[in-house]
Backbone:
């Protein structure tokens, strides 16, 4: 195939790997109108549930990964880290120089992907699990033979499932620890808030609903109001009031340092794994 033409609605997108993340990306691309479903394909061999999931919003399901690669201008590798080398190596003979390759595989570096593929037009993107609800935090890293147009295309694709940032690949272990693992930290915080509400006498369903909506609202204020989170905290904490009493307990418990330590520990583990 020739280099990807523009405008952005003229190319075909293929997924090698048909898991939940690939489904979330494909669904976001279709629902946002970035691409029609008939220009998107993946391969599913035996799992009828995964086949049904992709076909439910119109994506083509082909018999093999080779067929996906032959049918696509942009190929997104979305397989498990332990098998990505074998998958890329197996598909190497079918890749063409005009194709843009993208990996969303955690912990696998671009230099290795490019070597296995024999292909320098390769980008790496790190989304996180809120992709499933269109609220991903994705970070992309390029270089090699990729172009500004390639970057714009990938920003458009992953912008359909949330927000996209650009960063050098050297930051990806810390990104994995913060945004990749971060949802788990927030799930614990939501659960703890709800448990606190129950301990204070609230019904469980009400406490959980209030906790989850409060976290969503607070995050939205940070992203949309342009204020530092410390300032937003100060705005809530009236002198001698309920909020500052609660904050005092959080500070005594070392909440800030504990969260910081969690990100640093996860970064070290990501470095070990990669």
Residues:
């Amino acid at each position: 195939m020739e280099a990807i033409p523009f405008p952005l609605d003229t190319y075909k997108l293929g997924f090698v790997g048909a898991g939940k993340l690939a489904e979330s990306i494909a669904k976001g691309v279709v629902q946002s109108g970035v691409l029609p479903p008939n220009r998107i394909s993946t391969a599913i061999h035996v799992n009828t549930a995964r086949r049904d999931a992709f076909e439910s919003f119109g994506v083509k399901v082909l018999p093999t990964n080779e067929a996906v690669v032959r049918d696509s201008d942009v190929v997104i590798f979305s397989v498990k880290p332990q098998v990505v080398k074998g998958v890329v190596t197996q598909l190497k003979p079918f890749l063409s120089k005009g194709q843009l390759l993208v990996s969303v595989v955690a912990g696998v570096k671009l230099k290795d992907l490019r070597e296995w593929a024999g292909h320098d037009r390769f980008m790496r993107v790190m989304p996180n699990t809120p992709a499933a609800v269109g609220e991903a935090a994705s970070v992309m890293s390029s270089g090699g033979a990729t172009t500004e147009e390639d970057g714009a295309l990938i920003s458009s694709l992953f912008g359909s499932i949330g927000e996209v940032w650009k960063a050098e690949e050297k930051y990806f272990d810390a990104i994995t620890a913060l945004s990749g693992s971060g949802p788990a930290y927030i799930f614990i915080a939501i659960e703890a808030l709800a448990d606190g509400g129950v301990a204070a006498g609230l019904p469980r369903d009400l406490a959980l609903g209030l906790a989850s909506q409060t976290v969503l609202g607070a995050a939205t204020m940070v992203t949309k109001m342009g204020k530092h989170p410390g300032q937003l905290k100060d705005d809530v904490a009236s002198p001698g009031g309920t909020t500052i009493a609660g904050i005092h307990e959080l500070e005594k418990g070392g909440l800030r340092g504990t969260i910081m330590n969690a990100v640093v520990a996860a970064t070290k583990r990501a470095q070990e794994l990669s």
Summary: Residues 1-7 have pLDDT under 50 and may be disordered. Residues 204-225 form the longest helix (22 residues). The CA atoms of residues 68 and 232 lie 48 Å apart.
